[in-house]
Amino acid sequence: MIDTHSHLFAEEFKDDLEDCILRCKENNVKKIMLVGFSDETNLKAQELSKKYDIFYPTAGVHPEECDSTYLDKFNRLVEFIKNNKVYAIGECGLDYYWDTTYKEEQKILFRLQCELAIKNDLPIIVHSREAHQDTFDIIKAFNGKLKGVMHCYGGSLELAKEYVKLGFYISLGGPLTFKNAKEPKRVCEGIDINHLLVETDCPYLAPTPNRGKRNESSYVKYVLEEMAKIKNITVDECDKITTNNAINLFKIYVENN
Question: Domain containing 163 — which CATH number?
Fold first, then answer.
């Protein structure tokens, strides 16, 4: 298994990170995409990836980081990826849930990171909350030149199909396991498994049976098990396909995948 979206550098793991990594290995989680979203977290992802070979770092500027200094933050990201190995640009995207003060700036910042991903031949990790149409319109405007993943996808099946047409993967996390999560299950059922990924987004959105608790990367197995159930295939088959999907997108190497 590959957890394609994790924030194991978060404060919530400061006391037991190595135990979390051990649980990953015990549960066949081979690799973890360690997703940065700010100056601080981009650096943390880089540092932890040098210390533990289970991690693959990314770097980006999250829409919630967007303020009047957004261009400075973007320029620092450009310099950061010049000097550090990353496997994707992001987490980035649009988020209108909490605050729309910098809505137009968010769009500019997202476009800039899309262009950066194309320039560096990297996939992009997209966050979209309460901004489904704007997110799609920006990605579509790149006419298939952009590759990436819709992280912890929360949109409709119909829109997910449009993203797949553009060459994007759809990543599903803990909400897939929630009893009342009709749309994620519908998305899972309706999208070809060759375009699906699994993730945790830890420490957030812990899957059933740990809903409401701190999430961690070893819990990605519960997402995989639910996906296999919905797809009516074995867990091993689901694991093999989604792992290969992640390897192909992020260009990583996993021994005996």
Answer: 3.20.20.140
For 95, phi and psi rounded to 5 degrees?
-145, 110
Asked if the structure places residue 209 within a domain, the reply is yes
According to DSSP, the β-strands at 196-198 and 2-6 are unpaired
Taking CA atoms, 185 is separated from 100, 112, 181, 220, 238, in Å, by 29, 32, 7, 16, 15
Name the pLDDT band for 104 (thresholds 50, 70, 90).
very high
**Distance of alpha carbon 232 from the chain centroid:** 24
255 is a domain residue: no
Identify the pLDDT of residue 250. Answer: 98
DSSP state of 96: -
Whether 149 is in a domain gets the answer yes
Kindly report the length of the chain.
257
Share of the chain above pLDDT 70, in %: 99
The domain tally of the chain equals: 1
- CB-based contact 162:128 (threshold 8 Å): no
In 3D space, the residue among 141, 155, 153 whose CA is nearest the CA of residue 110 turns out to be 141
Domain that holds residue 129: 2-250
Could you tell me how far CA 249 lies from the centroid of its own chain? 11
Return the structure tokens found at 155: 């949109």
Q: Is residue 9 part of a domain?
A: yes
Query: For residue 83, what are its two tokens?
Result: 């000097």
Model confidence, pTM: 0.96
Region 235-246 average pLDDT? 98
